[in-house]
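Action item from last meeting closed. Structure (341 res):
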């Protein structure tokens, strides 16, 4: 590390953010509050850093992932040439004792100290490819519309049991449902169109869709989540990130719990994988045989379906790695046995 290297911690809120400069533990931390969370505030931050002899070559800026609130400053600083890292808030929180004050300046100083202590683990942040970002936004809005549609259907079904009904409410339910379904269809069409814009993305998309149980949504979620399989291409890492890996919990002779998944990670992708596992366990003969065999052995239904979800994800990573489509009834053979024949 350079002799004069600084770590900047940003605590981002909706309207403002706080910045702190951390150099070494024996030197005081400089903190400034009330930067506006807009382009003007970003310019004021850079001026403040420059006043403290900090430039693009001698600092690393760290902030927590707060969704749309942190996107603006991350994009701006990255475009200006600064090294930026966006960390999960839970990871930063676990690095410090929970007792003590909880304010924006304190959080900013802790983020800066976190960057100093874990400087060897900081992964540079880079803006996502524009096409993948558009697909991510469409998937997010589609999920919102789907939840609204389900909630509205439940409200409509409940209202139909009322003894006294208002015709206007019935029409409002039907028209709103029809509009939501129309918008969801338009989003699906736009997703399909965007997938065809990039040849490499389109090829991987069709490889994934060839897998039993995989459709437009699950394939698109995997491509966005892995940034077209450039950030994560290893099956074990991907399964852990999605949250379908069972973890053991035992210690000595008194604590011996069953291995369980932790339900971390992207919920929408995990839900779609579970639905895909249920589909192939019902309609695909290969997975159906495995599913029934494991149930006959006394395995829990949820455990077997989670195993199938892991198998599907492993299959997806293998097809992307080999740049091939799924082949029904394909069997692999070890080269040693092939030579023996």
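Sequence:
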């Amino acid at each position: 590390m350079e002799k004069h290297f600084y770590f900047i911690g940003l605590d981002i809120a909706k309207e403002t953010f706080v910045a702190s400069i951390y150099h070494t533990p024996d030197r005081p931390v400089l903190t400034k509050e009330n930067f506006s969370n807009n382009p003007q505030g970003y310019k004021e931050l850079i001026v403040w850093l420059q006043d403290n002899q900090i430039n693009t070559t001698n600092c690393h800026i760290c902030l927590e992932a707060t969704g749309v609130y942190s996107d603006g400053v991350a994009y701006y600083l990255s475009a200006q040439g600064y090294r930026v890292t966006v960390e999960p808030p839970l990871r930063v929180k676990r690095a410090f004792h929970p007792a003590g004050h909880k304010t924006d300046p304190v959080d900013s100083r802790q983020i800066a100290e976190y960057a100093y202590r874990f400087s060897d683990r900081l992964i540079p942040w880079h803006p996502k490819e524009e096409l993948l970002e558009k697909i991510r936004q469409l998937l997010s809005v589609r999920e919102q519309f789907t939840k609204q549609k389900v909630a509205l259907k439940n409200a409509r079904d409940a209202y139909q049991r009322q003894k006294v009904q208002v015709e206007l409410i019935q029409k409002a339910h039907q028209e709103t449902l029809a509009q939501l379904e129309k918008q969801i269809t338009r989003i699906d069409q736009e997703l399909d169109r965007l997938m065809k814009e990039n040849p490499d993305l389109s090829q991987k998309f069709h490889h994934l869709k060839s897998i039993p149980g995989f459709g437009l949504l699950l394939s698109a979620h995997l491509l966005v989540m892995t940034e077209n399989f450039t950030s994560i291409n290893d099956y074990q890492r991907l399964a852990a990130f999605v949250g379908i890996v069972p973890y053991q919990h035992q210690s000595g002779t008194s604590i011996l719990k069953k291995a369980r998944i932790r339900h971390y990670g992207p919920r929408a992708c995990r839900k779609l994988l579970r639905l895909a596992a249920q589909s192939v366990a019902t309609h695909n003969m290969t997975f159906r045989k495995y599913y029934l065999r494991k149930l006959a052995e006394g395995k829990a239904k949820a455990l077997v379906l989670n195993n199938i979800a892991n198998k599907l994800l492993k299959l997806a990573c293998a097809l992307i790695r080999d740049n091939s489509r799924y082949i029904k009834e394909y069997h692999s053979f070890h080269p040693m046995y092939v030579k023996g024949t």
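Note appended to the action item: The mean pLDDT is 92.
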